Amino acid sequence: MRIITRTTPSVDTENWQNTLATAFRHSDDLLAYLELPQNNPMAHQQAAKSFPLLVPKPFADLMEKGNANDPLLRQVMTHPEETRHIEGFVTDPLDEQQSNVQPGIIHKYQGRVLLIAATGCAVNCRYCFRRHFAYQDNQIGRKHWQDALSYVRNDRTIHEVILSGGDPLLLNDHLLSDLLDHIESIPHIKRVRIHTRLPVVIPARLTSALVTRLGQSPLQCSMVLHVNHANELSQELQQGLQQLHQQGIILLNQSVLLRGINDQLIHLSELSELLFEFRVIPYYLHLLDPVQGAHHFHVEEQEAIALHRQLLANLPGYLVPKLVREVPGKANKSPIDLDL
Predict the structure, then answer these.
(1) What residues does CATH 3.20.20.70 cover in the chain?
(2) Best CA proximity match to 252, nearest among 323, 205, 191, 321
(3) CA-CA distance, 119 to 136, in Å (whole number)?
(4) Per-residue pLDDT reduced to its tens digit, 91-120
């Protein structure tokens, strides 16, 4: 486990957007930057056709140069296995098409609704369960926010809006603040939750304006990060999360159990310990959603159960994330039975 230290750049709205604009978009460029050989370039190009490579430089800087098995690199690097069709791995593993009730709105669970605030991400994780999602049908720009939120306004059983995507923090501070204004105007909404990976790959996204705006919200505000390995947690990210914590923002993390990346006790233990140092509560450890193109990350359920038992035996309970899977049509995330 290593906390990467970098010189912290000036934090402003332009900085993170410029960083995103210069992200790596071709496997040969990323491999060259990491001083790695370019093996089987045609296979990488084929994998990128359906799901392009996208890796911001700050995230690449957390990787170990010369190490083809770096756990961060393996999460984002195209792989020849992605083009294989494996039985049981499908384009819509969570059957979200059924709960995509109108453009920009996914309503799966009682009392909460997911708003697709942005249709892109700052990094393309190769195991993403929405890598085949119909984002083109769910683009709701500023002009259409009211249409999407009318669904929320008309259902008084909804008390929480979850901003997701893509990554909602791709909205700049001004747009995000405007969207929050609209959400906060709905009387029966009590909570807003932001699901994001952007601060992990570009820590400068946690601007002072964003932190202040979230802290000023009259709603209970939480941010759910997506971190799979302790090496993703940089000193710069820690500084930003500390500011959010000081503003009273609840910080949670969800991970995906991934073959060859975090499927060992030491990996998950170090992650939980360091998350807590960063003021983040380990929340969920997901079994991989069976999305087409990600089968090579799969960890069998019995293996996951054995690993989770080890976590329970080695960490205090508050550092052990819940082991879950998402089952299409279920009313909630499904906890994995450890007695199996």
Answers:
(1) 96-335
(2) 321
(3) 8
(4) 888 887 888 888 889 999 999 999 999 989
Q: How far apart are the first and last CA of the chain?
A: 32
Query: Domain 96-335 - what CATH class?
Result: alpha beta
What digits encode the pLDDT tens for the residues 256-307? Answer: 999 999 999 999 999 999 999 999 999 999 999 999 999 999 999 999 999 9
Using DSSP bridges, classify how beta strands 281-286 and 191-196 pair: parallel, antiparallel or unpaired. Answer: unpaired
Summarised one tens digit per residue, pLDDT across range 245-259 is 999 999 999 999 999
- Specify the length of the chain in residues: 340
CA–CA separation, 28 and 255 (whole Å): 28
Question: Which one has a higher pLDDT value, 13 or 52?
Answer: 52
